Amino acid sequence: MASKQGPSGPYALLFVTMVLWGSAFSSSKSVVDHVPHTVAALMRFGGGAFALLLAVRVSGGRRRPEVAARHGWRAALAGVLGVFAYNAFFFWGLSLAPSLDAGILIPVMSPVLTSAFLLVVRRERASAARVAGLGTGLAGAVVFFLGTGGTSSGGGDSTRLAGDALFLLSAVCWAAYTLAGPRVLAGIEPLRATTYATCAGAVLLAVIAVPDLPKVRWGELPTGVWLNAAYLAVCAAAVANLLYYRGIAAVGPASASLMMFLVPVVNTVCATVFMGESFDRVQGAGALLLMAGAVLSLHTRRSTA
């Protein structure tokens, strides 16, 4: 399963991916503060689709073997789930709750949900420790949601709770997208697979953004919004998604999803330093339970591999 670069090669790519994604939560929040959430999602992945199409062109895509239609459609359908549905929920949630919540719930719950699915379908072995880890993670999510009422940042209590619920739906979408990765990559290189998925998702994001586009005063947007949008499109969308698919191809969906545990660390630093966000002690306890459950699942997976 290791790449020719050695076992550390794919994980180095995934590490860079997680740093880009970790910083993207607060960057996305800064864009959502100035434009409707549907437009913010389109700016990120519309720009990301353009960057990937350019990359395919520059890499000599026309000289590469033709991709079978079924492989292209499979990648596009994955984009409906991992780009369109994920980001529709994610950016909607950002309009209601702090980016700090997203950076805790999504990257920690995604691997927990991925692992739970693999156990249910018996693609991985169940053990008492694994089940305990998943249970601890789910308990942490419950505690985190209960603590939503204890903070005022990001809007009213019910508003923040609704945003966190949307982040949880994003985590479900991302877990499914990760599980679909190996099938999507069968018969198609990661760059093209990522491009097809991103373009398909961007088209659907454009459809739901159309009613909100006239509401944006484009000429009055601060320079910082454009800089964040460019960063999100090129780095957090195009580059990060490509590296993630390469990581899945090398180490598989389970191990790739576990790298998501790095995201909360990066996100917490960015959200507190740049956005001034915070959560209370109850949410902090929930976050610790989430991480403990995730670490336990990781340890038992490797010990039984």
From TrEMBL:
<dbReference type="InterPro" id="IPR037185">
    <property type="entry name" value="EmrE-like"/>
</dbReference>
<feature type="transmembrane region" description="Helical">
    <location>
        <begin position="166"/>
        <end position="186"/>
    </location>
</feature>
<dbReference type="InterPro" id="IPR000620">
    <property type="entry name" value="EamA_dom"/>
</dbReference>
<feature type="transmembrane region" description="Helical">
    <location>
        <begin position="72"/>
        <end position="92"/>
    </location>
</feature>
<dbReference type="GO" id="GO:0016020">
    <property type="term" value="C:membrane"/>
</dbReference>
<keyword id="KW-0812">Transmembrane</keyword>
<feature type="domain" description="EamA">
    <location>
        <begin position="12"/>
        <end position="145"/>
    </location>
</feature>
<feature type="transmembrane region" description="Helical">
    <location>
        <begin position="42"/>
        <end position="60"/>
    </location>
</feature>
<feature type="domain" description="EamA">
    <location>
        <begin position="162"/>
        <end position="297"/>
    </location>
</feature>
<keyword id="KW-1133">Transmembrane helix</keyword>
<feature type="transmembrane region" description="Helical">
    <location>
        <begin position="104"/>
        <end position="121"/>
    </location>
</feature>
<feature type="transmembrane region" description="Helical">
    <location>
        <begin position="256"/>
        <end position="276"/>
    </location>
</feature>
<comment type="similarity">
    <text>Belongs to the EamA transporter family.</text>
</comment>
<protein>
    <recommendedName>
        <fullName>EamA domain-containing protein</fullName>
    </recommendedName>
</protein>
<dbReference type="InterPro" id="IPR050638">
    <property type="entry name" value="AA-Vitamin_Transporters"/>
</dbReference>
<feature type="transmembrane region" description="Helical">
    <location>
        <begin position="193"/>
        <end position="213"/>
    </location>
</feature>
<feature type="transmembrane region" description="Helical">
    <location>
        <begin position="128"/>
        <end position="146"/>
    </location>
</feature>
<feature type="transmembrane region" description="Helical">
    <location>
        <begin position="282"/>
        <end position="300"/>
    </location>
</feature>
<feature type="transmembrane region" description="Helical">
    <location>
        <begin position="225"/>
        <end position="244"/>
    </location>
</feature>
<keyword id="KW-0472">Membrane</keyword>
<dbReference type="Pfam" id="PF00892">
    <property type="entry name" value="EamA"/>
</dbReference>
